[in-house]
Design goal:
There is one protein chain. With about 100 residues, the protein is mainly beta. Helices cover about 10% and strands about 35% of the residues. It has one helix and seven strands, in the order βββαββββ. The chain has one helix at about 40-45, and strands at about 20-25, 30-35, 35-40, 55-65, 70-75, 80-85, 90-95. The strands form two sheets. The protein has a five-stranded mixed sheet, covered by helices on one side. The protein has a two-stranded antiparallel ribbon with strand order 3-6. A hairpin with a 7-residue loop joins strand 4 (about 55-65) and strand 5 (about 70-75). The radius of gyration is 17 Å and the shape is globular. The relative contact order is 0.24.
């Protein structure tokens, strides 16, 4: 006999994802993202972890499927962030200045 029949089981989100994260896609790779918003620096770090930063290294960051009024657009260094929504897509392209 179970002593705690009404005790909830540990919750997991869809597909076994942590319920305190949101599944987003960065460069088509599924990421369990722990924040409500994502900005340029966070997107770059997820897409290219540990890549050296400098004046000759640039990134283009675009997103779609976000929450709120700004559902798609670009993220720029030091600029606004996007509201995270399950399934949103973030694309980060790396290039060197010539």
């Amino acid at each position: 006999m179970n002593d705690t029949p009404n005790q909830p089981q540990e919750a997991k989100g869809d597909h076994g994802h942590d319920p305190h994260t949101t599944e987003i896609y960065v460069n088509t790779r599924s990421v369990d993202y722990p924040e409500d918003r994502i900005d340029y620096a966070q997107a770059v770090e997820i897409a290219f972890p540990g890549i050296p930063k400098g004046p000759d290294v640039t990134f283009s960051v675009t997103f779609s499927g976000a929450k709120g009024e700004m559902q798609s657009g670009s993220l720029v260094e030091g600029g606004a962030s996007a509201r995270v929504k399950k399934g949103m897509s973030v694309d980060v392209v790396h290039s060197n200045r010539s």
